[in-house]
Amino acid sequence: MSGGDGTIFALASGAGLAAIAVMRLSGSESGAVLAALCGGPLPATRVATLRRLWNHDGDMLDQAVVLWLPGPNTYTGEDSAELHLHGGRAVTEAVAETLVTLGIRPAEPGEFTRRAFLNGKLDLVQAEAVHDLVSAETDAQRRQALRQLNGALGDLYRDWSDRLRTVLAQQEALIDFPDEDLPPDVEAALLATMAELATAIGAHLNDDRRGEKLRDGLFFAISGPPNVGKSSLMNALADRDVAIVSPIPGTTRDVLEARVVLGGVPVTMVDTAGLRDAEDAIEAEGVRRGQARTRDADLVIHVAQAGSPWPDIPMDRTNLLVANKSDLGGPGPVGALRVSALTGQGLDELRGVLSARARAMTETAGAPPLTRQRHRAALESALLHIQAAQAVDLPELRGEDLRLALRALGRITGHVGVEDILDTLFSQFCIGK
Ligand code: GDP
C-alpha cells in the first residue's frame, strides 16, 4: 500500500527544548532506514527498544527508544517507525541530516494524515478532525473534534449518501423498466425518502452554526460611550492589560481584542472604540471599525455607568446590559448586571453569565454538529439538488439532480472527486501530522 512518493520523516512533537522529541518516519524505506540508523537488525515489531543511533561516519548521534511499526496497521497505513530522541535541537538536527543522507525526505505539512486518507485509514471528515484536535484550545473543542474523529459525523453523511443512492437506483429502475412489475409504491417511497433527507439536511444546516462557532470561537463586542470602563472591564475579564485604560475620553482609538475561554468556548472579546462623535480622523476610523465589529458580534456587551442615562437596548440573546462603576453608587437600570471593574465586584457573576451565553450558543444535542464551512457549502448544494429533484414535473428528469446531490455529499467525506481540495486542506496542518 502506498500513498505518496517516497519515504518521509518529520518531528511529530513540538520544536524547542524538551526532554524527548519524537521523529516519525513513514513509507516503504522506513524499515531499511531504521536498521541503518541503528546499525543492526530491526527491533521486534511494535516493541519499544533502546538503541544507539549512528551517522554514516560511525559517529553516535543519540541513544533513543525506537519503534518499528510495519504497515498496514499504522496511522498512515504504510511501514512506519518512531524515534524517541533526546529533545535537544542538535540531536534532532543531526538525526534529520542523517535521515536525508539515507535517502528519505522531510514531510510536507499534513503529509502523514494525507497518506492516511489516501490509504483509506481516515475519511476526509476524520482527517479534518485530526487537525481540529491538534488545534483544540478548550475542552469543548477537544470533545467536538474527538467525536468527529470517531467517525460519527462521517457516518451521518455516509448514511445520507447511502439513502440517496438507493433513491437514485429506484428512480433508474422506474425509468429503465417502466413495464415491469415494480411494486406500485416505489415512486411514493422514493419521494418520501427524498422529503426526509431534505428535512434532515435542512435541520442540520439550520443549527445557528453551533459546531462551526465552537470550532472557530465566538466573538463578543464590548460597546458603550467613552469612559464608562469598557477597557477596564475587558482587562479584568482577560486577566491582563490588553486595552489602554485612561481617564481621557476616547483613548481607545482602535479595536482591541483579547482571547478568553468562557464556558469551554474560546471567545474573542473586542473592545470597540468609544462610540461617540469622533473629533479627528484616526478616532473616526476607530469608531467606524468598532461599529462594523459590533454588527458581526455573537453578543454585544453594552456598558454604561451606574447612575447615568441608560441606552435603549433590547434584552435578547445577542445583547447584555452591564452597569459598571457600581462602587460609585447610583442605581443601575432594571435587568443590568451591576459590576465594578475597579473593585472586582460582580465580575464573577458577569463571567458566569457570559459563560452560560457562550455555552448556549455552541451546545448541541443529539447528532454531531456541522463543523466546517466546507461541509456547509457541500450540504447546501446537496439540499438544493434534492429540492430541485423534488420539484421536477417529469420523473425522468430527477436522476441528474439526484446524482449531483450525491456527488456533493460524497465530496464531504472524500469519496468522490476531491483531488482539487486536498492541497489546500492538508497545507493547513502542521508538519509531522
Ligand atoms: P472606556 O473609555 O470605556 O474604555 O473606559 P476606561 O476603561 O478607559 O476607564 C475610564 C476611567 O474609568 C478610568 O480612569 C478607569 O480607571 C475608570 N474606571 C473603570 N472602571 C471603573 C469602576 O468600576 N469604578 C471606578 N470608580 N472607576 C472605574
Describe this structure in words.
It is a single chain. This protein is α/β, with parallel strands linked by helices and 433 residues long. The protein folds into 3 domains: 8-121, Probable tRNA modification gtpase trme, domain 1 (Gyrase A, domain 2), CATH 3.30.1360; 127-207 and 369-426, tRNA modification GTPase MnmE domain 2 (Four Helix Bundle (Hemerythrin (Met), subunit A)); 214-362, P-loop containing nucleotide triphosphate hydrolases (Rossmann fold, 3-Layer(aba) Sandwich). The protein is 44% helix and 16% strand. A hairpin with an 8-residue loop joins strand 1 and strand 2. Helix 4 packs antiparallel against helix 5 and helix 12 packs antiparallel against helix 13. The model has no long low-confidence stretch (mean pLDDT 86). Guanosine-5'-diphosphate (GDP) binds next to helix 9.
Ligand set: guanosine-5'-diphosphate
Tell me, briefly, the overall form.
Answer: flat
Give me the number of helical elements: 14
The CATH class of the largest domain is identified as Alpha Beta
Secondary-structure class: alpha/beta
Gyration radius over CA: 29 Å
The CATH topology label of the largest domain is Rossmann fold
Largest sheet: 6 strands, mixed
Q: What integer is the average pLDDT? A: 86
Number of strands: 12
- Unreliable stretches (pLDDT < 50, length at least 5) are none
Strand order of the largest sheet: 3-4-5-2-1-6
Give short descriptive properties of this protein.
alpha/beta; Four Helix Bundle (Hemerythrin (Met), subunit A); 6-stranded mixed beta sheet; Rossmann fold; 3 domains; Gyrase A, domain 2; 433 residues; binds guanosine-5'-diphosphate; 12 strands
